[in-house]
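Before the break, one more example. Copy the sequence into your notebook; we will annotate it together after we see the structure.
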Amino acid sequence: MHITEFSANGFRNLQQIHFQPDKNLNLITGNNAQGKTNLLDAIWLMTGCKNFHGVQERHYLGFSADFFQCGMKFHDGRREQQIKYSLERNQQKIKQISINGVTTNKPANLFEVFHCVAFSPADMELVDGSPEKRRNFMDLGACQLRPDNMRYVSKASHLLGQRNAGIQQAIKKKIKKQDILLWDSQLAQVGAFITRMRSEYIKNLAPLCEHLYELITGGQEKLHISYRSAIYANSDLLNSSVTVLESQYKKILSEHLENDYRLGYTLKGIHRDELIITINNKPVHLFGSQGQKKTASLVLKLAQAHLYRQKLQRSPVILLDDVMGELDENRQKLIYNAVSDMQVFITLCHASSLKLEKTGKYFQMHQGHLTEL
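Here is what the structure looks like once it is written out:
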């Protein structure tokens, strides 16, 4: 998968941008606050996912812009496709999105056609941030491989919200305590599916992570990742039939009803799952150095891209925002070699910070304008 043409205007500080990126390496340089990250955000927008820098949708519009427009043509390995995305200031809840000329108002529909793997310094939260960050990482990766999985992830969140609302209703004596169990069958069905989805994803991702980390560290350290289910304490259960998994999930919910009622929310479930990350058998979030945390989080993203290519026989677009400049020459080469056959967008303040002798296209960003060098 690679972008063949991209345009953006009015998206944050981007102005009249239109370029044809290289099929492999694209280096975007410029001083801070010139729009380099905004360009990568605009590309990420085309995935239909939430902004990977945490920017809220209402901030997509530039300060003085009445609207923004982004357009992209890309080849998915079989054919060229086109996405257009626009938003007006006075109608911020009404997005104008089209895929190959067909209009849709749902960004989620973009997720089925265009995929990126993005990394920025903020992604260190994958290692030392909240467990929710790691659950989102697992779900995004698994759903990129099978977009239909997204409906289960969305449904699980909806059902959990309903059950928690039911608990509050029971506390206020508006419904009976046992009525809370009405949501358990559906939660068990969806929860069992997501548990199996996450378990399978990490099982496939783990050897890729371990191999990449070994390459980057010269074999001096061992990275290991594993999936820990909040429902199935006995990991052998994950090999059981769907019927057994659903039954166990429902049983746990029922057994913890009194605790849930006392706490005011659902304690047990996939919303408590965790991705365990260790280096030399020690938890990285507790004992890892800043360098180890950064390398581990970067390896997770690189492995995500490799697994995508392995399973789908095509590659996602890679976005590396302000990552390479802080790495030594050897690590830069190892990381770039890991994605050298994919389309990569790299942002840096100075081109000289990139110690790679690779052909591609070089661009400079200045006050929201992009110029090819």
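The radius of gyration is 22 Å. The mean pLDDT is 88. Try to locate both features in your own notes.
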